[in-house]
Amino acid sequence: MTICSRNVLATIVFFVSVIPLYGQIKTKSYIAGKLSLDNSWSSTIYLSHITTFDDMYVMSNEIIIAKANIDSLGYFKFDIDYLPVDQNLFRLHIVKKNDSPATLIIGGKDENHLFLIANRLSTIHLTSNSYYPPFKNIVFEGDKENIAFQRITHHFFKADSIASESSASKRLLIEKQLEKDLLLIADTSNYFMVSLYAIYKNRFSENYSSNESYYKSYIKKWSNQNNPYFNSFKKKLSFNSFDNSTITITVVSLGFLTLIGFVVGRYSSKKTKIKANHVDKLSVQERKIYEMLQQGASNQEIADQFNIGLSTVKSHVSSIYSKLNVKSRKGIVNLKND
């Protein structure tokens, strides 16, 4: 065999050996996309780490973990090989020019954020098909988990929008159907973060007593999960279980009764404090809307009072429900009565 023939053979062997391995090499992890923006927005996009579903609408400079430039065509990219290996919840957001980086707009045409799931191995590419708001119609390319995650948000807001403009009887029927839909999603999804998100959107602390067996089975199903999201959920669920349980006490002496009264008093005080802390999570605008909700105001009345759009009111109301762990206006009134 000539030297030339041997070189050709060696080249063929090299490509036969290397090419199959090439397809197994993981491309560098990233979150990238293209946004449709007008010139009122800053050219910077921010990435925040959301450590529990309770904190989805919490905003501060401390939770922003990265920022990236948005070029003149709307393209941006984050390298994320430093993220945890497990799936976590993140938020992308942009701000208006001259606004603080820690500005979160909820509802309306300027709503400025998007939630997504990612880890250090993710390759996420998204495209926006909307100017107002810029994150409304997002398309994820081949990312089944984030597609399922966004579908829950759209389903919830669609049902909530219809309910807010309906009679009390129709609203009750819509809320009951939404509860069933979200429980079904939580039960059938193969993605833990998607499943837990459906549980949270269903206001689990509100319907625990009527679905106790379901939630016990749910915890058992995902018992292999050991992360802040699941641990926070279990902690809230165990508190709710205690709150709804019936405790039978046999009084042996007056002194024992006094002791029990002292313990119950401390527990009631703690419960009230927890509710107060939840209200403290509301923004200034949300507190004003919360007060009107307690008075039984409709979405249209709230919109007229504060000169804001109905869609903005609906988004604020949804955020208030989430932060206070209530499912409906009835839950808001119950907090007032408590």
Write the layout of secondary structure elements.
Blueprint (H helix, E strand, L loop, with lengths): L2 H20 L7 E5 L6 E10 L13 E6 L5 E5 L8 E9 L16 E6 L4 E6 L9 E3 L3 H21 L3 H21 L3 H10 L2 H4 L4 H10 L6 H17 L9 H27 L3 H11 L4 H8 L3 H15 L4 H9 L1
Parallel strand pairs: 1-7
Antiparallel strand pairs: 1-4, 2-3, 2-5, 5-6, 7-8
Helix pairs in contact: 2-3, 2-4, 2-11, 3-4, 9-11, 10-11
Short description:
With 338 residues, the chain is α+β, with helices and mostly antiparallel strands. It has helices at residues 3-22, 144-164, 168-188, 192-201, 204-207, 212-221, 228-244, 254-280, 284-294, 299-306, 310-324, 329-337, and strands at 30-34, 41-50, 64-69, 75-79, 88-96, 113-118, 123-128, 138-140.
